[in-house]
Amino acid sequence: MRDFNAELEQRKLAGLYRIRRQIAGPQQPVLTANGKRLLSFCSNDYLGLANHPSNIEALRNALPETGLGGAASHLICGHHEAHHLLEERLAAFTGRSSALFFSTGYMANLGAISALAGRGDTVFSDQLNHASIIDGCSLSRATVRRYPHGDVASLAVMLAETPGHKLVVTDGVFSMDGDVAPLRELADVCRAHDALLVVDDAHGFGVLGPQGRGSVAELGLCEADVPVLVGTLGKAAGTSGAFVAGPVMLMDYLVQKARTYIYTTAMPPALALASCTSLELIEQGDDRRAHLHSLIERFRRDAAAFGYQLMPSRTPVQPIMIGGNQEALALSQALEACGLLVTAIRPPTVPEGEARLRVTLSAAHSHDDLECLLQALSDCRHLLGS
Description:
Aspartate Aminotransferase, domain 1; 8-amino-7-oxononanoate synthase activity; transferase; acyltransferase; AONS_Archaea/Proteobacteria
């Protein structure tokens, strides 16, 4: 029998062992983690909507009308009018013809990619794509080719030499680096080589683009440019679930073929109605986004002045590159001793030798909150050496 305990011990020695923190209370900048109050800079609640009174009220008001559980899959008797309303709102918000409401972003990627490509087809995936995209590619049983991160020229060569049905999949905003994919160039090369482009905008939705419509909308790209758009509602939207949006025919195809949509119980319909409210908050949230971007600019300026190595990111995801696993853990632990929660990200989430602290900023943070983080980073700079 495989020695699972030895593997766990090896992970501890390599600085790769992971733990769960027990959080009490709502998601907000100040959390109670394992009984200790900490100022958090590691949540994906980019607009501070996870604990917004309007979302909570919408959920509370919906429950008497919809009940709690979804009770059945969408194709049996679980497709509630609340789900349908959210899908219509998502399609309109993203400028797409149609949308499907999935339970999680992971399930959306697994379902869409494995339905839209199969044996005999080829999927092209950015080397730094999220695990859900990687797993969706594997599940499709298509040939998978990974292209260098953001390298459209290399992708064009690979597409040109590959016959048959081709799918190109990329994150819109890369979750561990915080950079934005070259979406316009990707759309052009996919059009030139008759490839279907799928963009997962989980970390751009709500934050980038006009009225928070995402990284695709920021560039003015439409459904013809990016036929399949994936997004999540558990990050900037502050609720739960995910969606895939695109042409009516493709969404109908996913209803027939996406196993993670067909063979799972529908999400609680009350959550769908809360997400409709959240879309309104996102649409009206220019002040929130302006405040968020002011935090990002200040963090980048001051952290760089302290000598920290930052990634080229203009998004709320602001990684501090460390390199070694133990060094990243040590800095994270030192910040926690100062009352701050900033998690260390280590392989296999990121490549070997690229461990980092992943700072994420939220519109719910104040400039005083950010000052606490910056002061602690200044005080702990000695841990990284010269």
